[in-house]
Amino acid sequence: SKLVFATNNAHKLEEVSAMLDGQLTLLSLADIGCTDDIPETGVTFEENAKQKSDFIVSNYQLDSFADDSGLEIDALNGEPGVYSARYSGSRNMDANIALVLEKMAGTSDRKARFRTVISLAIHNEQHFFEGSVEGNIITEERGVAGFGYDPIFIPDGYEQTFAEMTADQKNQISHRAVAVKKLVEFLKSR
Ligand code: ITT
């Protein structure tokens, strides 16, 4: 059976499609003709992810999952967190990264993590799958691959930022990979 991936983020769709490697047939929002601005008003990843998957169930009567994710920086009390996509007030990632680096200037505690919560709405049931990856924020951007905050995040145990890794490398170890593996295991077990 087919599952809608309720995201407008082409990078998420590409990463998750690569991770699934054909194990599941995904429908994109484009595939189902959804051009709505899906509401995302929660204050937690769980709430936002659930809003996105619920929206597809309510409006399209299709099973669906959604990914809500972001970067939590210890020295910024967990910011940008659920505000990661628009931390500077817009979706401009140059501005978002610049704001993070400015707020972190002179800060020696660089510890941070990426988190993903996947909400699965299937057969009128609700399930959540989480993934996170610990790491550090560097002081200037490195690398051009990936998306979002990848150029300033080095996962623990590595020397490259996510943006210096190949897509395959990032997709082996990322927060999203951890959550997607749990989603796949769950779907296989049913
Ligand atoms: P959808 O809600 O349509 O899925 P979005 O980009 O708005 O797309 P979120 O609300 O979950 O998604 O915001 C997540 C933001 O966190 C995203 O825009 C990036 O800035 C950042 N982010 C999430 N995963 C990331 C990753 O793997 N690498 C770098 N940054 C990431």
Automatic annotation (TrEMBL):
EC category: hydrolase
Protein name: dITP/XTP pyrophosphatase
Pfam families (alphabetical): Ham1p_like (PF01725)
CDD domains with a match to the protein in the record: HAM1 (cd00515)
Phylogenetic classification of the source organism: Bacteria, Pseudomonadati, Bacteroidota, Sphingobacteriia, Sphingobacteriales
Record function comment: Pyrophosphatase that catalyzes the hydrolysis of nucleoside triphosphates to their monophosphate derivatives, with a high preference for the non-canonical purine nucleotides XTP (xanthosine triphosphate), dITP (deoxyinosine triphosphate) and ITP. Seems to function as a house-cleaning enzyme that removes non-canonical purine nucleotides from the nucleotide pool, thus preventing their incorporation into DNA/RNA and avoiding chromosomal lesions.
EC number per UniProt: 3.6.1.66
InterPro entries cross-referenced by the UniProt entry: dITP/XTP_pyrophosphatase, ITPase-like_fam, RdgB/HAM1
Family annotation (NCBIfam families): PRK14823.1, RdgB/HAM1 family non-canonical purine NTP pyrophosphatase
Ligand binding (Mg(2+)): D68
Listed cofactors: Mg(2+)
Active site: D68
Stated family: Belongs to the HAM1 NTPase family.
Residue numbers binding substrate: T7, N8, N9, A10, H11, K12, S69, F147, G148, Y149, D150, K170, H175, R176
Reactions catalysed according to its record: XTP + H2O = XMP + diphosphate + H(+); dITP + H2O = dIMP + diphosphate + H(+); ITP + H2O = IMP + diphosphate + H(+)
Keywords: Hydrolase, Magnesium, Metal-binding, Nucleotide metabolism, Nucleotide-binding
Subunit composition and interactions: Homodimer.
Cytoplasm listed as a keyword: no
Family annotation (Gene3D superfamilies): 3.90.950.10
